[in-house]
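Dear colleague,

Following up on yesterday's call, I've attached the two folding results inline so they're easy to grep. Please treat them as preliminary; we haven't cross-checked anything against experimental data yet. The first protein's sequence and structure tokens come first.
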Amino acid sequence: MERKIRVLVAKPGLDGHDRGAKVVASALRDAGMEVIYTGLRQTPEMIVEASIQEDVDVVALSILSGAH
């Protein structure tokens, strides 16, 4: 059996809006990928560490670029 693509979905920064990240994570799972969601307010260092520990193939960042 072929190994699933492993994707880390992360929310860097202070933004607390995670609905989009969760929708994307769900769609990736539905497409047959293994998804690791790190949760809110991750630092770049936390994201890098998680991606190394989880041995992921892809790192997806969800960033709100609004005015706040």
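Below is the second protein, in the same order (sequence, then structure):
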Amino acid sequence: MDFAVLGWEDVAFRLDHRQFAYAGKFVVPSGKAAVLAPDAPPIEAQPAPREGYACGIVAAVSFSADRTDAATLWVRYVTVRSDRRGEGIGPRLLCFLADRAPTREYERVQIAVNNPFAFEAAYKAGFAYTGASTGLAELVCRRPAGPLERVGDDEANGDNDEAPTDLADDRSGSAYREGLDVYRQRDLSLEERRFCERVRERGPPLIVDAPA
């Protein structure tokens, strides 16, 4: 698989809604990054959104600059093909994008997540809960742009209550549990509730290795 930034703005393609969540959001021009199968054609050879589905895309992320803060890049949507979910591809793609954000003079990357599984994926990509939420009740998570400095697994990824500020705003166990507790107050499915209980007891997950 190849990880690639397809463009920082005005990229659009059509994903098969039977295979991808949020498929319709990717026809809107914006920045896009993707995980591509070895036989995937280049983005310029992909069909236009009105002409057919994009080929060879395993996962994709849509992003754009914050409307009021030019130093902040917002991840808008993340999707992984249904047959490849659960492999950690989404968090690695988020890391890949965040590592390259400084090339466009971004200083931080933010994402708003609406369920505990997406919250966990964001944490695996080095994001941390800010304590804020959007008008759609999504929890806002943030991380610095650029490669994260690993300061040791116990400090960077473990369950401790001190925040290593060179990694993210707050990677502490208390901030992580605070975010999960917001979800636990909602009408969750049994699967989501059990997941929250399990990972809350464990603490923040390890940060995945970013693709080269």
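For the second protein, one point worth flagging: The chain has two domains: 1-106, 112-206.

Best wishes,
A.L.
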